[in-house]
Every structure is written in structure tokens, then in C-alpha cells.
Give the backbone structure.
Amino acid sequence: MKVWLTTAGIAVKLVRNGLRYRYLRLTGRPGRPQAISLEVTHSCVCRCVMCNIWKIPRSLPDLSLEEWVSLLSEDLLSDLRELDITGGEPFLRDDLVALMEAVRTLKDTRLPRLRSVAITTNGVLSDRVVGMVAEMLEPPARDGLELVIVCALDAVGELHDEIRRYPGAWSRVDRSIAGLLELRDRHPNLVVGVKTTVIRQNLGELEKIAAYARERDLFTIISPAIVTPGRYLNQNRERDLTLSAAECARLASFYEGEGGDSRWSYHGQTLARYLRTGCMDKPCTCGFNYFFVRSNGELFLCPLFEKPLGNVKDAPLA
């Protein structure tokens, strides 16, 4: 099954990255980033209850297409394997297809090891999402580059509308997923999945979401909401977004139950242990093989950090 293979591959990558991290740390040798996240826009059509990115003033400009391409062309990223494009809502950018075309060109020159480009979307702009993804897939890729589209799905039904604070959000993302699956049938390099942000409002919906994904061969990312003044600007929502001990135990039970599915055996068990013990049993590679760039160019070693290291507009990465 394609989803199983994709998830198994992710698990292998995580183990390999962990071994590489330990080796370079012991030898004192420097590492090059293998994964980065780019918030290509802070603009969004939703007003999600767990995120305040949409509150960033519209007058604050995003980096231009040329500036993003210049960043991706830097020598420090020559070992990049995974590129994550996020927002806001990335599909609000009229030049998103052009950015993907530039990435494919860079793979032949500056990014020879790049294997996947993941774009996260709320899926509300159904026609725009499916249409632009179709453009990204033409001509068919022959370079081994996977295009991964991750649709935000916080419930199967109207509760999703309430969480995203957008009337009709559920029907629209369902329509987007259906259109993407039609494209997947014709393009084997297209991978489609769903991402769920767990808050107390949708804690009872996770089994429905998992079933929805299984029926459609979608990979799943189901994780608790993150409170951070850096990435999501939602520190004022800490009381509402922090799960109680009982809710954490309930979420851990979900992960352990879904852990019997091969798609969840690594991710689910790891999160379950964290929720039950408060300890993450793998090293953090923040600043070692990953960083995050805000839409205005601010660079964070980790999305959890409050303050950026600097701005990519002011100086090269290295």
C-alpha cells in the first residue's frame, strides 16, 4: 500500500537522521540542513482557534518569489532532502506554481538530494488548490521528486468549520481531497495526506479522522496543538489549548490503539510515551539539520523559539 510505504520510509529517514546526528555530534563535524520549513505567506482565509498567524498585519510584506529562490540556492542547502512550504495559506500566492517550477530547476543544479516538497493547505480554496497542484504535476516529474499535499482536517463534519472559523470549511476540504485523489491516480509522485491539530474540542473526533484517512489511503499527522510566540503567535491561548492530564491520557490511548496500524507504529508510540511520561526519547536536532523561515524572512532554528536569529534578507545563511 502506497501510504504504508510512505510512512515506513519516513520512519527509516528519522532513524537514519538520528544516527547521523549522533555521529556528527560525537565527532564535532558540522552538519548541513536536510529539512527546512518556509512560511511563504502569512495571509490566510481561515481564523483558526489555535493559531494567530492570520492576525499578522496585511501590510507586512511576504518575501518575493525571487527572494525565496535566492534562499534555496545557497550553498548551505546543498544537502537538503525535504522542503516544507507552509503559511498562512500557501495557495493564496499567485506565484506558488512558479516557485515549484523553480525548485524543480534547482534540483538539477543546487539541490541534487532534494526528494520531496510538502505543501500544507487548509483546502478551503478547492478549485485553486486542485488546479494549481495539477499545474505543478505537468510535465510529469522524471527526477524522483515527490509532491506532498497535506490538507488540514480537524474533524469530519461541521465541527471542522467551527475550529477553522470558516463556514463550509469541511465540505470544501473534502472536495479538495477528492480532487487531489483523482490527480494521484494519474501521478504516482503525488502523495496526499491530512494533518490534524488536536485540541479539546476535537479529541473525540480522532477515530473518525483516522477512518476517513484509511478509506482514502491518506497518510495522517495527528498532533497536539503547539503553543508558541514564535511560529503560531498563540501564547495568549495557552489555557485553552493545553490539554489536561486526563485529556493527555485519552490522546495517548488513541495513539496506542492506532499503533497497531503499521502507519502509526513509530509516530504514535513515540507521542504516546511523551504524553504519559513528559519526556521525548529522541534527541532534538534543532539548528542541526532543520530551520524555519517566517514569511518576512526571519529565521528560527526551531518554530518553538520566541526570537529569530536574524533575517535572511540581511545576510546569507553562511
